[in-house]
Structure formats: C-alpha cells, structure tokens
Amino acid sequence: MSSGRIAVAGAGLGALSAAERLRERGWTGEIVIVGDEPRRPYNRTPLSKQLLAGTRQPAELRLAAHRDVDATWVLGTSAVALDPHQRSLHLGDGRRLDFDGLVIATGTTPRRPGGIPFGRRVHTVRTLDDARALDAALGRARHVVVVGGGFIGCEVACAARDRALTVSLIEPREALLTGPLGPTVAATVTEQHAKAGVRLHLGTTVTRWEETGRGLRLHLSDGTVLKADAAVVAVGTEPRTDWLQASGVQLADGVSCDPTCHVIGPDGRALDGIVAAGDAATWPNLRFDAVPRRVEHWINAIEMGQHAADSLLAGPTAAAPFTPVPRFWSHQHGLRIQSAGMPALGTATVPLTGAPKSGRYVLGYTRPDQHGTEILVGAVALDAPRALIAYRDQIGLPLARRRAA
User: Fold this and answer.
1) 248 and 220 in one domain?
2) Does the residue 360 lie in any domain?
3) Measured distance CA(104)–CA(312) in Å, rounded
4) What's the half-sphere exposure (Cβ side, CA atoms, 13 Å) at 153?
5) Which tens digit of pLDDT belongs to each residue from 66-114?
6) Would the pTM count as exceeding 0.85?
7) Are 219 and 143 found together in one domain?
C-alpha cells in the first residue's frame, strides 16, 4: 500500500497507536478514525481506580499523540457493518466509508449477564461516562457490592475502600485473581484485600437481585443476603464484533487473525488490506504456541496497534509475526503487581526471586514443551519491579537456559 484511504474502526489506544505508526512509516494518504464515543482517545486504565479515588481527573486522561496523525475523526458514531469485498464500512449514522486499508480496533464491552438490574444503582466500568456515573453513586453510598474478583473488580474495591466505604466483594473462586495469576499470587492478593477491610464472599455467586426503595438486596448461593446502596458488576468482557457477523470474516472470541495481525476471511486465508489490533483481536502468539487468544492489556494495545499498521503496509506475505511478551501492572491496597508473559498458560510455578512468605517475590510460571523441557511462559512480581526486568526477555525460553544465563 502506498496511497489512498485507511479507515480505523475504533478510537481507543490501539487505534491511535496504529494511526501514529502509519504516519511514522511514511503513509501520506488519508486516515479516517471512527469511534462511538464523542471524545478522542483517552486512558481507560485509571477509570477503575485513580479516577474513583480522586487522584486523577477526567481532563488528565486524554491520550497525547507522539506525532501528528493528521486524521479525520468521525466520532459519536460507530461501524455497524463491513463489506470486505467492496472495501467499505457502513456507519451508524447512515454513511458509507470506502477504504483501501482497514484497522479493526473496536475493543470490548463489559459482560452484562441477564437478571441484573443495570441502571442508577448497578454499574459496569468501561467508558469515562461509566466511571463518572459510578463516582457519583459512590458519593451517595455507604455500602457497595462488587461482583467479580478480577482486576477491574479488585481495583474498584480498592477505590471504594479508599473512600472509607463498606465493600463486599463476591467471587465464585476461592481466591481473587486465581485465573490470571494462579493460586500462590492469588492467596497473597486475597489476604491483602482482607487486611484492607474488604468483606470477601468467596466460592459463592449471586442467585437473585432485588431493588428496594432504599437500595439493593443480593441473595448469594451460600444463603447470605447483602444489602447495598450500589453495585459494580465486573465479570469479564466480550469483544465488540457483533457488527462483523454478516461480513464473512472469521470470529472466535474476537476477530480471528493470522500471526501477522491480518484478519482471516471466510476461506480461512488472511485478507490483504484488513488487520485487527487490541482487545478485539484474537491471534496466535508464536512465542508460546499456535493457539489464537485475546490479550486485554494496555501495553498490548499499543504494541499490537503498531504491528498491525506495519503489517497493513507490508501485506500478508511480507509481514512479520506479532510475538510480544504481554505485560501489565496493578496497584491494590499498596501492593504492586506486575506481570510479564502469559502466566495463565503455566502448569507449574517456581520461585525466581524471594519467597511467597515474604510478600515480596517474583514467581515463574512454566509448562513443558513437546520434548518435556520446562519453558518459562510467565513471571509475576509482587513489590519487586526491578527483579522482574531480568526475566522478561527469558519468556518463551527453556527454564534451564535461564538458570545458566
């Protein structure tokens, strides 16, 4: 590709990163960025904690571009259909946007299970408007219930405790963050929340919701009944791909991509001129294996947006595979959690620095390859940021090689 129009469906971090990289690589054609929110890209990471705690303000969240992307912004509407053969996007306001190249970066939406009375008292957190509504609700509340013990749920619980609210957290597993971090780190995080005064209801679920004149009443599977003024539901996300259902592109927990970020068409082959990036994209990271997965992290959105732009310009046959080391961080009740790689893929753990009993350590996650060699697939640091750096470049390599280094 050397000229024409590149459309970007989505106006978040991945979209902005792709647009910046296109200009950096010398793309002089038109860039049109389409987003459903009425505002330009902003940082969503603080929405579940710093914004609610009052340490960050909405005006501070806008993402500053590192270079002028010279784009046409179409905001307050979204892509509602894609015709990959005619190379056109159909927008919610009735317009048709023809393109020569397309970056799909529409992100995710919070999962909203049925039977929950979402509204003034029951919230999810994805957009700035969501966070503002929750902030107002917390300002009126004395007791808030958080449903879901993942990162969003845990961070909201932290912010609510910082505001001296009574917080009850409901999680079906026996510890918080067990899925992404495994039982050892999960035990440390769970203990930290308990020490901070979060009322933990582990190994249980909500079986019935009631709205009362004064608030909410939640019935739990263990027979407990909780009364609350507000609730936050944080039970995972779903990729925003409903608008692609009739397009023929392959969808499987996201937009299916090949290793280079090119979208897979109906015939199972990569589509020239269409790539995907960020939380909505599922692709095989060949650093680990050939299984397609989604990665919902801030750094991944940046790096995948950049790589998708490179791949779009290069084409499917010349583009390189996208093989990052995923990384993320979280601060919870003073505990600093940092991760590199994909710990959830590990079948065993090994202490790399320190010991879990100390509360300050780096834990390695390994799994055997086809020859039985233990491969380091992830590492998690608790209050040990410098120690983690030494292991980041070893992700995907045999553990024995790491020890010999």
Assistant:
1) no
2) yes
3) 11
4) 29
5) 778 999 999 999 999 999 999 999 999 999 999 999 999 999 999 999 9
6) yes
7) yes
Q: Where are the beta strands (DSSP E) in 101-259?
A: 101-104, 108-110, 122-123, 143-147, 166-171, 199-202, 206-211, 216-220, 225-228, 230-233, 237-239, 255-256
Distance between terminal CA atoms of the chain? 43
One-letter amino acid at 376 equals L
Q: What is the CATH number of the domain that holds 270?
A: 3.50.50.60
* Any domain includes 246: yes
Summarised one tens digit per residue, pLDDT across range 235-273 is 999 999 999 999 999 999 999 999 999 999 999 999 999
Among residues 214, 233, 252, the one where a domain terminates is 233
Domains held by the chain: number: 3
**Gap between the Cα atoms of 70 and 6, Å rounded:** 12
In angstroms, rounded to a whole number, what is the distance separating the alpha carbons of residues 249 and 239?
14
Question: What are residue 275's phi and psi, to 5 degrees?
Answer: -130, 170
Q: Are residues 104 and 248 in the same domain?
A: yes
pLDDT digits (tens, 9 = 90+) for 301-311: 999 999 999 99
119: left (phi over 0), alpha (psi -120 to 50) or beta: left
Are residues 219 and 285 part of one domain? no
**Considering 198, 233, 268, which residue would you say is the last residue of a domain?**
233
pLDDT at 50: 87
Sequential DSSP letters for 314-333: H-TTTPPP-----EEEEEET
Burial 95-126 (b: 16+ CB within 10 A, else e): eebebbbbbbbbbbbbeeeeebeeeebbbbbb
